[in-house]
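Review this fold:
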Amino acid sequence: MTEIQNSKQYDLEERTFEFAKRVRNYIKKLPRIIFNIEYGKQLIRASGSQAANYIEANESLGKKDFRMKIKICRKEVKESRLWLRLIESITGNQQEREDLINEATELMKIFGSILEKSK
């Protein structure tokens, strides 16, 4: 891959996929205690769901279907952010967690903007 590591991705399908993948890799590093296991399961589901629903939105059957899928994307990325915030006090890698929270916030804003423009 020839792109610069820190450059922002503007292909939203790829960006949502990368977010889900980064979350998965982050979860793998957490200590295996009951809180991390339960929060991690929820976080994996929510981060994967936002990526899958964005793919579905791109294949939507119409404007109403598209808007519904984007709403689900926004909801799932908000949920991802919640689980990331809850993991805060249990893990030592705060910078990676903060980066994921920031990405979730950006994705949430992007999905909100898409919803506004699709009215």
About this structure: The domain at 12-22+32-117 is CATH 1.20.1440.60 (de novo design (two linked rop proteins)). Confidence is low (pLDDT under 50) at residues 1-9.
